[in-house]
């Protein structure tokens, strides 16, 4: 077999055989397939796409390129959730304890923030003492005893994807549906859960800009999950504006706590309930309607908040900070950003809001850069809201005037104002499962 022939087959629109895909993934992972041939193949896939069989084979080959986590020491059905990435997306920190407080175990491996999107691990580390660097034995013990844990991915989880993702990032081949689907699903499958709920974001802050693209990506991922025996559901949700009001690490943990105290913005609260309910129903805890009611009940009773405190304590964190969020690290400087005109917020460029938060210190340019836990943005106005000239639209938190200047400039660029009220679109656009697509908007 020769890489040259594989590239030519795909370039000419032919389906690759399972053996050809295996040859590519193994050769690329062990370094015998050079970067230039891997990038040519990625570009051919970008243009010609892949069949569902090819995408599933690519996924399983990548999943098997490193550790396959065996969660069998953890009792019961294990469910996982994954978001395709967005701004202000702190749902895992609320959803994981909600699901665990309903009696379903969650053994979650999460990632760090990069570019304009935040990462759950950075958010958790803003809680003093909370560690995400936990070995497998302790991870299993915490999940068995507490019901949930959120840790970092092991270094050898899907090494083929690490390499391929880095290559796609510099060869303009990230936004290909079969490549995104296989990248995400290979990590979810290698992480070992029995069932997976995917939160597929769509809009100005997401990879998928349109609902149709997001639905297509969802279908591809659900098909892969079901094919390999993992019950999979995808919810397509809006990322045309940030989720909730807070963007930044400690700020987002505080807003996740607000969810567990029934005191969060509606879009965020309802997203958390819907994700939790879908996870619970995949774990056979009841119908979707029953699971929504169960999730709401555990939040209202305070059980879900107590579960978050237990999880944080088990991971070495100081849960008294969760009970008194004023004790989170505070930014040394704040600045109020004011509306340049009277009218309505007509549109938000969500990616720019994320870039503004990163410029304030909440994000990182490279994976090993440090983040400022206290930096971020608290949005007072979002799409559809009325504003008066000079009124506060957001508060910025940072450690230097220079960063505040940059953050303010980017944030003002992210807002568009108009004279007429606009309707913001519903938050959930579709639910995709093995039974088909249910359009929700
Ligand atoms: N997230 C991933 O893990 N992979 C992609 O390709 C895109 C988003």
Structure keywords:
alpha+beta, binds uracil, four-stranded antiparallel beta sheet, five-stranded mixed beta sheet, 441 residues
How would you briefly describe this protein structure?
By secondary structure, this protein is of the alpha+beta class. The protein is built from 17 helices and 14 strands.
Description:
The chain has 441 residues and is of the alpha+beta class. It is 46% helix and 16% strand. It is built from 17 helices and 14 strands. A five-stranded mixed sheet has the order 1-4-5-13-14, sandwiched between helices. The longest helix has 17 residues, at 211-227. 57% of the residues are buried. The mean pLDDT is 94. The structure holds uracil (URA). Uracil is lined by residues 84-85, 165, 174, 179-180, 183-184. Residues 84-85, 165, 174, 179-180, 183-184 line the site of uracil.
């Amino acid at each position: 077999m020769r890489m040259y022939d594989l590239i030519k087959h795909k370039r000419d629109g032919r389906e690759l055989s399972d053996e050809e895909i295996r040859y590519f993934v193994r050769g690329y992972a062990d370094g015998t397939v050079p970067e230039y041939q891997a990038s040519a193949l990625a570009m051919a896939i970008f243009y010609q796409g892949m069949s569902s069989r090819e995408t599933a084979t690519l996924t399983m080959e990548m999943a098997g390129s490193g550790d396959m986590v065996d969660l069998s020491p953890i009792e019961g059905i294990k469910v996982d959730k994954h978001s395709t990435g967005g701004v202000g997306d702190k749902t895992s920190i609320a959803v994981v304890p909600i699901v665990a407080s309903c009696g379903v175990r969650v053994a979650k491996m999460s990632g760090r923030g990069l570019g304009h999107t935040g990462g759950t691990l950075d958010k958790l580390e803003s809680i003093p003492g909370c560690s995400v660097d936990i070995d497998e034995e302790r991870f299993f013990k915490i999940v068995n005893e507490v019901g949930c844990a959120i840790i970092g991915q092991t270094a050898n989880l899907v090494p083929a994807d690490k390499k391929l993702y880095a290559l796609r990032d510099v060869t303009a081949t990230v936004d290909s549906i079969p490549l995104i689907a296989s990248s995400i699903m290979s990590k979810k499958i290698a992480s070992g859960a029995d069932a997976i709920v995917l939160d597929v974001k769509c809009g100005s802050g997401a990879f998928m800009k349109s609902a149709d693209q997001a639905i297509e990506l969802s279908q591809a991922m659900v098909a892969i999950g079901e094919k390999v025996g993992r019950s999979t559901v995808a919810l397509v949700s809006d990322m045309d504006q940030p989720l909730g009001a807070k963007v930044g690490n400690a700020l987002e943990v505080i807003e996740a706590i607000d969810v567990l105290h029934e005191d969060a913005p509606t879009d965020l609260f309802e997203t958390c309930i819907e994700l939790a309910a879908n996870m619970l129903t995949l774990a056979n805890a009841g119908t979707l309607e029953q699971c929504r009611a169960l999730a709401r009940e555990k939040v209202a009773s305070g059980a879900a908040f107590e579960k978050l405190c237990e999880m944080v304590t088990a991971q070495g964190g100081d849960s008294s900070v969760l009970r008194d969020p004023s004790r989170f690290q505070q930014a040394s400087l704040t600045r109020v950003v004011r509306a340049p005109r009277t009218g309505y917020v007509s549109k938000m460029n969500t990616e720019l809001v994320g870039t503004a938060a990163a410029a304030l210190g909440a994000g990182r340019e490279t994976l090993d850069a440090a983040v400022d836990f206290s930096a971020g943005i608290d949005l007072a106005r979002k799409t559809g809201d009325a504003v008066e000239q000079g009124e506060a639209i957001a508060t910025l938190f940072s450690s230097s005037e220079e960063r505040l200047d940059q953050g303010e400039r980017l944030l003002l660029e992210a807002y568009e104002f108009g004279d007429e009220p606009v309707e913001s679109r519903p938050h959930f656009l579709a639910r995709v499962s093995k039974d088909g697509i249910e359009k929700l908007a």
